[in-house]
Automatic annotation (TrEMBL), chain A:
Upper taxonomic lineage: Bacteria, Pseudomonadati, Bacteroidota, Chitinophagia, Chitinophagales
Domain of life: Bacteria
Family matches, as InterPro entries: DUF4856
Organism from which the protein derives: Chitinophaga jiangningensis
Record protein name field: DUF4856 domain-containing protein
A Pfam family annotated for this UniProt entry: DUF4856
Automatic annotation (TrEMBL), chain B:
Protein name, entry field: Imelysin-like domain-containing protein
Principal subcellular localization: other
PROSITE patterns for the chain: PROKAR_LIPOPROTEIN
Keyword Signal attached: yes
Organism this protein belongs to: Chitinophaga jiangningensis
GTP-binding as UniProt keyword: no
Subcellular location: Cell envelope
Keywords: Signal
UniProt domain Imelysin-like: residue ranges: 49-327
Amino acid sequence: MLHRKILGTSLILGTFILTVASCKKDDAPATPPVYTVPDTYNFENVEYAEATGSISMWAGFTSWLGKGTGRQLSADSANYLWNNTNNAFTAETTTNLPIVTTAINTLGFGLVTKVSDAATFKQLADSMVKVSASFSVVAAPGVAGKVGTRLVNYSGVEFNQLVAKGLMGAMQIAKINALLDQCKKDDNNTVKAGTGTAMQHSWDLAFGYVGIPKDYDSAKTYANTEVNRPLAIGGYFRERGRTIQAGGTIFTAFRKGRAAINAKDYTGRDQAIATIKETLEKTLAAAAYAYATLPQGSSDLAVKFHAYSECYGFVLALKYRAATSKLTAANYQTLLDIMKTNFYELSADATNAKLKQMQTILTTTYGQLQ
Amino acid sequence: MKSTRNWLIAAAGCLLFGCGKDSNSGGSTGNSTDVFKKNMLVNYADTLILPSYSDLQAKLILLETATEAFLAAPSAVTQQALKLPFKNAYVSYEGISAVYFGPGASQQLNNTFNTFPTAVTKIESGIQSGNYNLALVIASDSIQGFPALDYLFFSANAVQQFNGATANNRKKYVKDIFARMKLLLTNTQNQWAAGYRDVFVSNLQTNVGSSIGSLVNQFAFEMDALKGPRIGWPFGKQSNGIVFADKCEGYFSAYTKDLSIANLTALKKYYTGGNGNGIDDYLILLGKQQLNSDVLAQFNLALNALNAIPDPMSAAFTSNAALVETAYRETQKLLTLIKTDVASATAVQITYMDNDGD
């Protein structure tokens, strides 16, 4: 068993040093590994172009789906974007991203190969394409169209929100969790120039899938013109994950874990993995909680339906939570069933009983989220 | 405002400042404050909200009676007889406008009763074709409720229209509007009676969806509406000073000023809780005496400024722009006080608008 001690006080500004001292003399190294955790993700042989590409495609694709509020979307374009063929990404929806439009178009892979349950999410995107035919219609119960600025289906659902938020689970969290599990099995001795050891590479790819810059600052409000800004779930650390301090916790854990791998401190690595998995899932829960809460304070159907749709998307994302999750299958099913309620019905309940039930499940499972 | 509660102020102060985190998360802050809040909410429900709904129901029935006489024999005389009942009902509506949460919101009451400006073209095409559906909550934008009646009853050639080719369809349209208004209002009253009142008075938190949260949000929302659609927008505040007088509330009947004053007066009454405990007393309990007197003073400044505008307000937008400007500024100041200062003092998060970037 190892006893760890952190020397140094500031987690954000300063560099701190981990000292690992042995408690049991028989199986611990004679001299404890001492290593430095840098305050940015600044390590040797870091490469995660695949993750950057995937996140950029997520941004381009979901932004394109959002254009359905103003024009009819083409089913062909949806296919091309999803598979990343026919130079589908254009400057209209891929400006200010970590990689430029031409680089996205020549990635050589599409979201289709990076998303769990890809067929399901493609279907949701296709539904948005279909609903976009009604962009100039006024929505009503049973009729797809616009509620304020929001484009919804016959029951009030904004499909693009289901895709955008759902993929934070089906792509980001699914990938991150799988890569973190993989890295435990990877070799950590043979260094390849540019990508490091297999373990380091899995770890770096996982970090890339979080969608935050290497010099991430959890306290900063990033402008949406900044190329290296937090994207997808990375953007929600600040938007909905501030109470649980998601951004700082996850960024620190990734840096600690990578430093631990460099020093072959696998206990440190595994602690970081546990923290990352738990906090990522909790971020989804905090976002779902926020969007189950916010519409209770509004009488505007556009606000309500938008919030319900975001909430639905985050609930879809929670499907990809780690096996160690505290959220039971039964409670997850309840959350999902509530989100499947017709939104007109959901909004017509003055007491918000179902939304309150969601809040209770989420806080009982995860503790205070807001 | 009662002085017997001074001891509570100190107690509440300790509790509130002792556990700041609780007030952020909407937790209740102790027994003495809870008793106060419960009394305040009972006062809101029983002496302000429920009687206001009843008043509107009664005024609607009076208006409907006058309407029946008008529809039976449309003339300048029967039209004239409509004016006062119409004004009374519309003014009464302003008394429930601030209660747009819970059952009212679930019924989309305000959306149906008072979305303005009137969509004249949509109404006329609906009357022509007989093809319209007032039950579509979102499509109900401005084809029904008071703004539609305002147009149908009091536009320049209203009487002529009710005697013209579309008379039958037009009369049916008016009756459908009444049926819809009465249905939603009755549904709202029933939901309050059937359990929401108890939910409302028992929810002592201040978080999103709580009773106090809803009240403060609606105060701010109503102020936003007064500053925006009621005065600012027709006055040209969103159109580089180009006046859109016909976009104001009650344009055709020229009750714009009465309605805005009724709205703000009702809001002040909701703020003070009438003769009982209100948000004003709650602020005092929280030790925010200065803020409370600032808000009350600003209510009076804004009301006086509105009163100074000559009728009809739609004409004053151009002929007395300086007076309207003053009223606009005073309402804006009041909005700031309520939306930022009162909201933060009561630990209420403003949630009515969509501030989400995506």
